[in-house]
Write a structure and sequence with these properties.
5 domains; single chain; about 45% helix; Arc Repressor Mutant, subunit A; 7-stranded parallel beta sheet; Rossmann fold; about 650 residues; 22 strands; 6-stranded parallel beta sheet
Amino acid sequence: MQNCHSILKKYWGYDSFRPLQEDIINAVLEKKEVLALLPTGGGKSICFQVPALMMEGICLVISPLIALMKDQVENLNKRGIPALYIHSGMHFMEVKKTLQNAAFGNYKFLYVSPERLETKLFAEYLPAIKPCLIVVDEAHCISQWGYDFRPPYLRIANLRELLPDAPVVALTASATPEVQNDICDKLNFSKASVRFRQSFERHNLSYSVLEPQAKQVKLLEILKNVKGSAIVYCNSRKLTREVSLLLQQHHISADYYHAGLTNEQRTAKQESWINNHIRVMVCTNAFGMGIDKPDVRVVVHYNIPDCLENYYQEAGRAGRDGRRSYAVLLTEHNETDSLLTKIDLKYPEPDEIKKVYKSLMNFLQVAAGVGEGISFDFDIATFASNFKLNILQATYCIQAMAQEGLLTYNEVVFKPSTVEFCASKSDLAEFELQHPELDGIIKGLLRAYEGIFDNACNIHELSLAKFIRLPVAEVVLQLKKLQQYHIIQYIPVSEKPQVFLLQNRMYSDDFKIDTKKIISRKLHYRQRTEAMIAYVKNKRECRSKIIARYFGDDKISNCKICDNCINYSDLKIPEEVFKLLSDKILLQLNNSSMHIDELVKSLFPEKEHNIWKIIDYLLAENIVKANSEMKISLFHKNDSPEK
């Protein structure tokens, strides 16, 4: 059997492992239960791919994102390592063939979405597949207190009962100590399980928070001053297009990316950026997972993310090659307030959930007492329109139903229909004269979808049918006729969003959801939002330390390159002032904890920057401690830091 170093060299070309990678590999080979917390770019995949190649059998990898599975499988196959993946967009026969290959072929990795684990077909082939290792990627998805909770992850524990001899490794880039404990609990890890946590310190990454008068001007200034590849994250699809156009108008090579594009469009844009044909990718958070581009020099957040977990992952895509890079967050007046107002929208009241549930069941035409196990094609835009619902609120209510185990809602694989004109304008005019029966749909396409004659465009057949006042079936038939005449290229929607009912429709009087859990999830979300806001508003403390402490890492030193460190690096405190202020701080904390802002205010009129430097020192020396809510208290012996 090859050792781990020879495998690393053979398939990846590296001579040595990164910190902790070899320790994790050895723990997996010893069949221990492992939780590994490795920051973005920390090389998580090698931690399970290398030991799997040293074991007999196939490695089962559970991953929530199709794009991530696809990228990893393609990378493995390029290295000569045979790998497969199954996702919810595949047809029955494709899934069956893939499972047969996994069971009886010479493959080393099988990637599956968590929803696949309890299907009858998967259960039928599982005994023949006999996984040698179970990998739970993006393991924070299993925690109800995490930022990306996905109920199907909770059923992974059932898989462990069927495969008691297969070791389990859970991997995540960002999980607070509370979420780490929850991951281990939900996966039924024993007390003998081991945890590994790489430092959150990024010596080469400079964090900054700026509040410019005009974000557009500041963004252009940043991209002018920092040369090289860049990512700009925006909070809406519309904004990605607007910002991309702004950059292009200022002669900066840029493109936009979001989940509403076709798979082909996303792939083409991503490849252009990876190969440096495009300098700046302006995108939503749909971009970045699984992308290994080491030379990103700057990541700009045009809007404040809703939690530090997302911000840390996205900002961490800069500087993976070890060279100086920048993570810049742009904010404006009252933007933090809008984050708080979104909380009630994202976590609707139980009565609102009940109302949307009733509307949904009526829309799907499901009678009370039936429906369990039935899947429905589902268009949320039509649903919201028919029942006069706010589409965002309807979406969040359906997500709440999914978290309650009433249904699953799969919108990941939805690819809208596309139309692209193939004919010239003169040919099109001549065709309309020869085929007047198709004149209406041609004019409907040109009027309803701006720019469709020059570029491929996503279309919605139902909306188009309403616009030109024809039945949907007739619209589809006419689109196919236009394709047969080579006037357009028409690609119908390949998969529709699905609602799958896990329970029979409840009678109205019997409608029940776990209100306590909903309230608890909302509370945790509020805490994450407040931690993000505290990061933005903190103008004194090292930003790397703020982030690291949030994730339970209190060992790192000041980075000396973030905006706060630079602004306060040259401030010196006389020894007598230092002693006097530190004694005052410890006296204030003698009996109880205090929010850091309250502590600073209580020491007025002492100079604020002196107070912050002393607090920073006391934290570094484990004399005091701080939690994720920015409350400071004395550090006791039994509070020894986690190793």
